[in-house]
Write a structure and sequence with these properties.
Layout lengths: L3 H51 E10 L22 E9 L1 H7 L3 E6 L6 E6 L22 E2 L11 E5 L18 H4 L6 E6 L2 E14 L12 H13 L15 E7 L5 E9 L2
Parallel strand pairs: 4-5, 6-9
Antiparallel strand pairs: 1-2, 3-4, 3-7, 5-6, 7-8, 8-10, 9-10
């Protein structure tokens, strides 16, 4: 039979074990938080260095838009002459691709999404895993980087160019992609024009669908058996959108897909846009 003294010793021992466990948890969490901060800081510093050294100017592209569409809250590019087609002016970067390629020879372009923090050079590996935990200079980093699907060719033949990025808590990478599903984003006509600047020039895409969906592979298709199957694919993506952008689609269109995780990691936040320039 245990004495009161033995019970007291066992109780104190139990408290000591619990304290040790809690201290270990605190230490592990602190290390994780510090590493998270350090890696985010490294990514932010790298982006700043890349931006400062690689962006050498800006250009403006005029894009004709459907006469039934407005230009949102921003009147930039609004044409007041009813006899002329409406146009919107899109600002793009003039980039030093020699500099970008000297840092990462697998650079395929630079992506920019209006009124988000998405403004990054895009890399591409031989798989879709490498840039989940490597930075633009190919150093190890849990923040990863913005990268294109390894199946994409960037030779003008891609039907669906797919670009991925992490949803980081500091709003970096593709964290602000979720903003495109808010009314103050999609109700501004100027926001929907996504640009990718490549060594061959700037490509302009017009957003036609934004949504969140449980993790799946359907929207990640890059090859299609027929025009009919591709058009069915496009119409399915369009029907998922939380907002009707009024964009028409046909089998000759090529599209851009941006993909990231939601805050739970179980669903995907998606933007689709069709090439218009």
């Amino acid at each position: 039979m245990k004495t009161n003294e033995n019970k007291r010793i066992e109780f104190n021992l139990m408290l000591l074990i619990i304290r040790i466990i809690l201290i270990a948890i605190i230490i592990i969490c602190s290390i994780y938080i510090v590493n998270w901060y350090i890696e985010n800081k490294k990514s932010a510093n790298m982006l700043k260095e890349i931006t400062d050294s690689s962006i050498i100017g800006t250009n403006t592209i005029e894009i004709p838009i459907d006469s039934n569409e407005g230009t949102g809250d921003d009147s930039n590019g609004e044409n007041t002459n009813p006899n002329e087609a409406k146009k919107i002016q899109i600002s793009t970067y003039e980039l030093d691709f020699d500099k970008l390629l000297s840092i990462n020879k697998s650079t395929v372009g630079w992506i920019s999404v209006p009124n988000t923090s998405i403004n990054y050079p895009v890399a591409q590996a031989s798989n879709n895993d490498f840039y989940l935990n490597h930075s633009f200079d190919n150093s190890k980093n849990s923040a990863g980087w913005i990268f294109a699907d390894y199946r994409n060719k960037f030779d003008g033949t891609d039907k669906n160019i797919i670009i991925y990025g992490h949803n980081r808590m500091d709003s970096s990478m593709f964290a602000t992609l979720k903003n495109t599903q808010k009314s103050n984003w999609y109700n501004n006509q100027n926001n929907k024009y996504v640009t990718i600047t490549t060594p061959s020039g700037t490509i302009v895409y017009e957003t036609f669908s934004v949504y969140t969906i449980p993790s799946e592979s359907y929207y990640l298709a890059t090859q299609f058996s027929s025009d009919e199957s591709y058009l069915e694919f496009l119409n399915t993506l369009k029907s998922r959108s939380v907002h009707d952008f009024g964009v028409s689609l046909d089998a000759d269109d090529s599209i851009l897909t941006l993909s990231t995780c939601d805050s739970t990691g179980k669903s995907r936040v998606i933007l689709h846009a069709k090439k218009i320039f």
